[in-house]
Amino acid sequence: MKEQLQQEFYTIYNKNAEHEFFSPGRVNLIGEHIDYNGGLVLPCAITFGTYLLVSPNNEGVFRFRSLDFKEQADIPVQESYTKTGESWFNYPLGVFNYFIQQGHQLQGLDMLFYGDIPIGSGLSSSASIEVVTAFALNHLFNAGFTKLQLVQLSQNVENKFIGVNCGIMDQFAVAFGEKNKALMLNCATLDYTPVDTNLGDYLLAIINTNKPRKLAESKYNERVQECAAALKTLQQELQIVNLCDIDADTFNKYEHLIDNEVVKNRARHVIEENDRVKLAAEVLSQHNLDEFGRLMYASHDSLRDLYEVSGKELDAVAEYSKTNPDVAGARMTGAGFGGCAIALVKKDAFNKFSTELIQYYTDKIGYAPSVYSSLIGDGVGLLKQAVDF
After folding, report:
1. Which residue in 110, 170, 245, 326 is the catalytic one?
2. Is 202-374 assigned to CATH 3.30.70.890?
3. 216: pLDDT confidence band, cut at 50, 70 and 90?
4. By CB count within 10 A, which of 4, 227, 301, 363 is most buried?
């Protein structure tokens, strides 16, 4: 892969790339719709992501090329930039804009991006491209940002330059990811704990439903509002800042305050899911994958029944997984209404799992999902020979 990318760079620019960087995608192992409720999530970096090859030029131009998209751009170095259309290069351009606004002098760069993250699948392709660009600029121009600052500026780009109101989990996971570790991240404080996640004989199967996530944004905003309504009601008697400030036992004592059953269900999912994350970190560190699998299924059931964000496509993946003895657990991951599910599958049974799931899903849904295998990988950094392809 590394040699292929170098050859592509040479073909485009008629010179070799002087610098090579990699930033992974991410999945959230458990802890869904928690980040805007001040709770705990458990993401990890995966072993595919975004590659960036760079060489400086003396022409004062940022040249954006990608092996994934036809659109390309040659943009002069200037004092500020604004988003133009929906093209992919807006994501790195927003990072360039941030660096310039912070007073950093940048020079022209020839760049080649390549990503093997399925676009629009909920595996954080946008966060991956933002973080790899930020890391590269920080490295090339000695800007002095800490890794946490790179995470925060990447989120800032997504929120303000791109205009997507995401939380910080995606950028955090792709920057701070560690091989064979999940990150238990407190979304309210940004404190995090690496959790040993030795999958042993298992791997992470990532199942892209291939359903366009048309509902995700509107329903996401609706869920945010429902959680805010639940919080406001509970604050009549509880001194809390976020829903995740209480556990399930406390919620059971005060749930009578919420008279809207739908809002009550939303709050119950969030609070119980936060408890599940704590338990998941504990059992993973003990290498108890059977119990972790049970928590994955419980999480999916809650997202389906209480939070109502799964849908028949994601449910089909969980349903099939429950019938397969080589699967420890499965659940939807991400915002829902399409996107991806994940499953813990025995390594030597992955091909059989993939074939059978595709058949089951196609019979039920009418078209095929895409199934990938991944291990838990490292976060953003220089591209080394050691990167697993």
Report:
1. 170
2. yes
3. low
4. 227
